[in-house]
């Protein structure tokens, strides 16, 4: 079936329109055959470079709200999520394309075993789409019904004749192998790509977003599209939002389920249980390797002041598996997680209320205090794991002002840092993004403490 350019109906409120597009001469696969009332296949979510499965938490909540049972979903947590500089050369705590293919194939087999389903749907963010395509092309097509690739650099972050073994080189061996042939998808699997209309920092013609200003990358905004797939453009969403934004959820759900979602908003549960994993950064590299001997204390806080309301509602020390929890939480509570992890700063993580249960509330200690922090009485970080800060696209206020370290234009920054004098230790700091508002407290840097206001949306 050939798709003409068409407008996809708006999902909710003022969310941007999506436009279906095709590369010239490409053939798009028909939408999946799932009809209303047909059981939706189990769904396995695949995170991107340097990330973890916790990023899929809000997507999974939306799936649950639309009737997808929690035990019919899974999210892989790659052991070493960062790619190697050279795919053929070992690097400590980094993974090759083959490492990721092997781990993903095992996760698919486990989800099939657990559910008894013959095939599963795969949804990947960024590098996660590379692993999905690799599994499908190299023997796994019979296990997969749908493949949704969100912001995946299918034609590279750059396309040059140097670095031939870099996984993200569109002219490199890995991506050339995946893209060879008239069609760039594997027959028998329904493929959907979701991309930004110019706001994805890894699909830009100029190299300034990858540290090479003025150097052509050889790729364009259309880089995430695939010949043979259904290719949708989701407007001015950034690299991560094309996976985790409500707008992306609508298209993911519709493609896999074969029908519109009943709700976009997350419906709260009456009772919430939280648990997760404490992970570490050996040698300064972000991994999903568990940390033993870390303590996790959770406090209920006043949403307007950030002050604690009583003692800890949950305390735990991790064992060899790095797991903490479960903690019973009221869905209306704002929370402070205090993570004391060996060899790392004591990290105070402030979070908005959790409307639903989750077992992927993962915790990773803040980066060490460095030279830039030497004169600071307190360091507070505003973090948005499921997207970037776009100025002037977004409302971003940190302690009442737009953060000075967030660059305008194409969104590239997912964190902002505030350094306060010693006289301001203990005061509250308000972090606002859109309609989400978190109040954190400034803890003394002299005690090796850092506060993080971590946005959920």
What do you see in this structure?
The protein has 457 residues and is α/β, with parallel strands linked by helices. The chain has six helices and 21 strands. It has two domains: 6-257, Alpha/Beta hydrolase fold, catalytic domain (Rossmann fold, 3-Layer(aba) Sandwich); 272-454, Immunoglobulin-like (Sandwich). It has helices at residues 57-65, 97-115, 127-140, 173-179, 241-244, 246-257, and strands at 6-8, 18-21, 43-46, 73-76, 120-125, 144-150, 190-195, 230-233, 272-279, 295-301, 314-317, 323-329, 334-340, 346-351, 363-364, 378-383, 396-398, 415-420, 428-433, 436-441, 449-454. The strands form four sheets. An eight-stranded mixed sheet has the order 1-2-8-7-6-5-3-4, sandwiched between helices. A seven-stranded mixed sheet has the order 11-10-13-14-21-16-18, with no helix packed on it. A three-stranded mixed sheet has the order 12-9-15, with no helix packed on it. Strand 3, helix 1 (57-65) and strand 4 form a beta-alpha-beta unit.
């Amino acid at each position: 079936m050939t798709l003409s350019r068409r407008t996809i109906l708006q999902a909710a409120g003022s969310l941007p329109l999506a436009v279906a597009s095709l590369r010239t001469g490409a053939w798009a696969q028909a939408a999946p055959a799932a009809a209303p009332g047909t059981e939706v296949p189990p769904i396995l979510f695949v995170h991107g470079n340097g990330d973890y499965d916790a990023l899929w938490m809000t997507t999974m909540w939306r799936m649950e709200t639309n009737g997808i049972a929690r035990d019919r979903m899974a999210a892989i947590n790659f052991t070493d999520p960062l790619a190697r500089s050279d795919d053929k050369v070992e690097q400590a705590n980094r993974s090759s394309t083959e490492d990721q293919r092997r781990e993903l194939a095992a996760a698919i087999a486990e989800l099939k075993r657990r559910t008894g389903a013959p095939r599963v749907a795969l949804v990947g963010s960024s590098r996660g789409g590379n692993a999905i395509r690799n599994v499908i092309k190299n023997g796994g097509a019979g296990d997969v019904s749908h493949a949704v690739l969100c912001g995946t650099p299918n034609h590279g972050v750059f396309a040059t004749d140097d670095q031939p073994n870099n996984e993200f080189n569109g002219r490199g061996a890995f991506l050339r192998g995946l893209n060879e042939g008239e069609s760039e998808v594997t027959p028998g699997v329904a493929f959907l790509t979701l991309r930004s209309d110019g706001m994805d920092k890894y699909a830009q013609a100029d190299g300034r977003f990858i540290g090479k200003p003025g150097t052509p990358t050889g790729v364009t905004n259309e880089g995430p599209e695939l010949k043979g797939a259904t290719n949708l453009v989701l407007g001015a969403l950034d690299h991560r939002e094309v996976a985790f934004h409500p707008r992306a959820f609508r298209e993911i759900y519709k493609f896999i389920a074969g029908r519109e979602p009943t709700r976009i908003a997350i419906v709260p549960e009456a009772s919430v249980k939280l648990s997760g994993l404490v992970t570490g950064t050996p040698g300064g590299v972000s991994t999903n390797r568990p940390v033993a001997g870390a303590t996790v204390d959770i406090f209920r806080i006043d949403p307007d002041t950030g002050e604690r309301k009583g003692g800890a509602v949950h305390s735990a020390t991790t064992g060899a598996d790095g797991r903490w929890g479960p903690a019973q939480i009221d869905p209306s509570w704002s929370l402070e997680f205090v993570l004391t992890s060996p060899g790392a700063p004591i990290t105070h993580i402030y979070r908005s209320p959790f409307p639903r249960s989750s077992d992927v509330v993962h915790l990773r200690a803040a980066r060490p205090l460095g030279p830039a922090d030497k004169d600071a009485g307190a360091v507070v970080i505003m973090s948005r794991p499921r997207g970037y800060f776009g100025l002037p696209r977004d409302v971003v206020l940190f302690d009442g002002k737009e953060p000075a370290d967030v660059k305008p234009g194409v969104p590239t920054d997912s964190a902002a840092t505030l350094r306060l004098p010693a006289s301001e230790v203990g005061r509250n700091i308000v972090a606002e993004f859109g309609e989400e508002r978190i109040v954190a407290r400034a803890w003394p840097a002299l005690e090796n403490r850092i506060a993080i206001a971590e946005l959920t949306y």
